[in-house]
């Protein structure tokens, strides 16, 4: 398996852990000092930068506290929506760039 394929498989595994609610499995895929950023304005409770596994845990709690997820399904991977960096077989950074207008409107209503 090529390095890029192995890195993509790590990211796919993270999504699979999220889908099945395997928080321990998800955390095991993260580098100790993972840099996790979901870009967006402060009105979105889970937007912002977090560091380390505890920061990702805080992000996931914020998502859980502020959203009702009825279905989570990977339909496609869009490179322009999320940027992942894998280092030494672990996810070292995540950047999410989403069109936040509808999300902001939902939180303001």
Overview of this protein structure:
The protein is α+β, with helices and mostly antiparallel strands and 109 residues long. It has one domain: Nuclear Transport Factor 2, Chain: A. It is 42% helix and 24% strand. Strands 2-1-4-3 form a 4-stranded mixed β-sheet. The longest helix is centred in the first third of the chain and has 17 residues. The radius of gyration is 14 Å and the shape is globular.
Give a summary of the structure in a few sentences:
The protein is α+β, with helices and mostly antiparallel strands. It has four helices and four strands.
Order of helical and strand elements = HHEEHEEH
Return the CATH architecture: Roll
| Mean pLDDT over the full residue set | 87
Q: Report Rg.
A: 14 Å
Low-pLDDT parts are none
Largest sheet: 4 strands, mixed
The proportion of strand residues reads: 15-25%
